[in-house]
Give the backbone structure.
Amino acid sequence: MTDSTDWPKPQVAWYAVAILLLAYTCSFIDRTILSLLVEPIKADLGLSDTEIGMLHGLAFALFYTLMGIPIAMLADRYSRRRIIAGGIAFWSVATACCGLANRFSHLFIARVGVGVGEAALSPAAFSLLADSFPPQKIGRALSVYSTGVFLGAGLAFIIGGAVIGLIKGSDGIELPLVGAVEAWQAAFIIVGLPGLLLALLVLTITEPVRRDADKTPAPPVTKVFVYLAEHPRLFFCHFLGFALLSAAFNAVSGWGPAFLQRQFQADAPTAGLGLGVAVLVFGTAGLLVGGWLTDRGRQRGWLDAALRVGVLSGLGLIPFGLLATGSDSVWHAVLWLCPFMFFASMSFGGAAAAIQLVVPVRMRAVVSALYLFFNNLLGIGLGPMVVALVTDYVFVDETMLSASIAWVTSSMGLLAAAVLYWGLRPYRSALEIARGE
């Protein structure tokens, strides 16, 4: 194995974290901006909640997950920074194309493009960072990287809400080379195109030496599935448990603005500011605390610390989701959404680190992609979609959106905690084997 002295210098490793964090932040701005634009898009294109749920989930998540695995296979063999840079350029153009859509099918196809481009980021980033930090520090590094979820979503809510407030009521906006567009279309174009500059910045990252790269060739994907089959309960519990936590988070981030607008008649700037602060401050804090708890637990000998944090996350979010959706004012709802976001975010960094620690070196990117496949198919794909289906087909009343969110988040939080608890023992056993104990 490569000697520990061969790890990149701390300043080089943390520079990579900073640039990849910026990329992850921009990716979430591009995917999350849709949440603030639900009401104007529905009004302009005549869409139902279920169709909006498809744009939130199916259009983005299906191809995001499907493309993640083949791109991850490339990341186990070729330059990870170049793969990431190409993905950023692709999703940035696709986000801008959302602003050119004038019907559901066009918007659906553009959202598919966003998903395809973003599929290049996290599997390659996980692998690159795992080769930049020693095992005892990887949880912290991946937690910092994963704060991009909350920085991006929070900034999307805050900045997006402010922009919509400024241009609301205008008959049309003239953009260079594009011409007259609606306010919601302009928002997509404005947030999408700057990503092309970010793609160039990613190329300044130093590609780290792969651990054991000179001894162990990347195995065929069939070997990866054989490895997963040898530990079925471990990966079932890890993949499903953390995916359910992601679904609870995405149910609120996807429908939170519409909930505040319908329940309390909040305008876009108010809804964006409230949710933005909850996600940006408390989501980020929860993620960092979760990463710290994971590393601290491992230092104390708890090999399953990441999954324990996931159990705490699932149980902790339930009461605050119920309090938020049962509130009597917009700011009371936002108040309870703050601790909800804290608990909902705690597990994200540890979940990624758990994969890197238990999986053989040259399988990391592919297994990370499989983890993201389930996490995003269920979390991004089904989280917002289930809320929409419950609203449209169980309550048959869009004003009951708050009840739909409460039902979905509580159920998923409880089930996630149970599944992850069941996975504690097999994870400990597999990690002991991986460490040669």
Notes: Residues 4-203+218-434 form a domain with the Growth Hormone; Chain: A; fold (CATH 1.20.1250.20). The two ends are 17 Å apart (CA to CA). The CA atoms of residues 187 and 296 lie 42 Å apart. Strands lie at 173-175, 179-181.
